[in-house]
Amino acid sequence: MADDADAAAAAAAAKEAEDRRQEARRAEEARLHAAALDAYESAHEALSAQATAIVNVKALIPIVLDHATNTYSKWRGMFLAVLGKYALTRHVLNDEAFPSRPAWVQANCVILTWIYGTVSNDLQQSLMMWQRPARSAWCYLEDEFLCQRESRALLLETQFRNFRQDALSITDYCRRLESMATSLAEFGDPIGDR
What we know:
Layout lengths: L1 H42 L1 H9 L18 H14 L4 H4 L8 H16 L3 H10 L3 H13 L2 H14 L7 H17 L8
Helix pairs in contact: 8-9
């Protein structure tokens, strides 16, 4: 019986030692992670200040995202380029969030303001209804435009096939056809030159 008690005490001590090691490892990982975030924020402090100072994002992203014009690919590309310029892409492309860090919260608010300023009124209303972080707003827009890709391609192809010149000049008519063909190509349904 004494051997069983000694074995149980040794097992409990070993478990306690392992728990202490795991806790120390987690604490060290948290410390290193916080230090990496501090270094990242410090290195990008000037860029963050510049991003915060932008009053009119439409000067950088002149496209308004809406369902009618189907400009998602262009809007997304321009938006990601601007985010890259200010080292902010991680806010919309990564799930990792740091709501306890003031610099992260401020950058998140800047990006949300940019999103709100470059989408149509109906999209803006849908986004603002839930007070989402920038990543969630980005994913909502992605789902809104890419998940309905097939039905939108069918609708756009019908519009393309039935489009008439009417009172448009030949230049405007060709531009409109070209725009629809480009949109169809973005949906994975390209129109041949013929």
